[in-house]
TrEMBL record:
UniProt-listed PANTHER family: 2-METHOXY-6-POLYPRENYL-1,4-BENZOQUINOL METHYLASE, MITOCHONDRIAL, METHYLTRANSFERASE
This protein's name: Methyltransferase domain-containing protein
Gene Ontology biological-process annotations: methylation
A Gene Ontology molecular function term of the record: S-adenosylmethionine-dependent methyltransferase activity
Phylogenetic classification of the source organism: Bacteria, Bacillati, Actinomycetota, Actinomycetes, Propionibacteriales
Keywords: Methyltransferase, Transferase
Keyword field contains Transferase: yes
InterPro entries assigned to the protein according to its UniProt record, in alphabetical order: Methyltransf_11, SAM-dependent_MTases_sf
Alphabetized SUPFAM superfamilies for the sequence: S-adenosyl-L-methionine-dependent methyltransferases (SSF53335)
Residues covered by the Methyltransferase type domain: 55-146
Pfam families listed in its UniProt record: Methyltransf_11 (PF08241)
Secretion signal, residue range per the UniProt entry: none
Length: 274
């Protein structure tokens, strides 16, 4: 296993671009209208109970942090993007959650601070996978549980990122595609022998929000940060914009099981720190 290093200035610029991307659009709508079940599913699979110390990494607006708090856990919701935390705080004023700005690749907490570390389609978007995985393990106490929900490379969101790849600038050296976190071989390599009882369970979200391909494309262009930024990068390029329109329409049409219904595959990863 190798440790990735990044130039300080370049890394700071990269993280600022990530903050800007996720603050753009309305990711809170996506979390609330399409994937609310994911947080509940993860908390239930982890068996989180009252009094446990729980860290939700890349928590966004609290998709998993909120149900963990409702289970009685002591929850910290961390995210690189303060705008998302502000929305979560405002939407859930009664939730006993400590909302903290933090970089998934450089968490501010001491080693072995938490009984449970989790992330719902969040930590997968940290650009340097090994650094993020190292932090997951570092802040988890020995015997503590980890739980991650990630989109798979083969599933709809994995294919969405593959589709958009041709329309955005290439990432800096060392940055890996987010859907790799949905690959069992990749995750096993990231954690190595530091995590035991690793388990992988594939499932899917049933999505029936969109009437058809154009409705899906418009929704993601307006609300989902990565798609929105792809379109912004094509400003004053009408031909390329039309190509991206057509590519996203084709993706959605190919996934349509009738009347706009789709199944978006994800994987639930669980394990324990040795």
């Amino acid at each position: 296993m190798t440790t990735q290093t990044t130039d300080t200035d370049a890394d700071a610029a990269l993280k600022q671009r990530h903050r800007t991307m996720w603050a753009s659009g309305h990711y809170d709508r996506v979390a609330r209208e399409i994937i609310p079940v994911l947080g509940e599913r993860l908390v239930a699979s982890l068996g989180i109970t009252a009094g446990e110390r729980v860290l939700d990494i890349a928590a966004g607006t609290g998709n998993a942090a909120v149900p963990a708090a409702r289970a009685g856990a002591s929850v910290v919701a961390s995210d690189l993007t303060p705008e998302l935390l502000d929305i979560g705080r405002a939407e859930h004023p009664d939730a006993d959650i400590d909302w903290q700005v933090a970089d998934a690749e450089a968490l501010p907490w001491p080693e072995a601070s938490y009984d449970v570390v989790m992330s719902t389609v969040g930590v997968m978007f940290a650009p340097h996978h090994q650094a993020a995985a190292d932090e997951v393990v570092r802040v988890l106490r020995p015997g503590g549980r980890l739980g991650l929900v990630s989109w798979t490379p083969e599933g709809f969101i994995g294919r969405l990122f593959a589709t958009m790849r041709d329309f955005v600038p290439p990432p800096p050296a060392g940055v890996q595609p987010p859907p790799l976190w949905g690959s069992e071989a990749h995750v096993r390599e990231l954690f190595g022998d530091r995590v035991e009882d690793l388990a992988f369970e594939r499932d899917h979200v049933d999505v029936d929000l969109f009437r058809g391909p154009t409705d899906f494309r418009d929704y993601f262009r307006d609300n989902y940060g990565p798609t929105l930024m792809a379109y912004r990068g094509l400003t004053d390029q009408p031909e390329r914009t039309a190509e991206l329109d057509a590519a996203l329409d084709a993706l959605a049409a190919g996934a349509d099981e009738g009347s706009g219904r789709m199944r978006w595959e994800y994987v639930v990863v669980s394990g324990r720190r040795r």
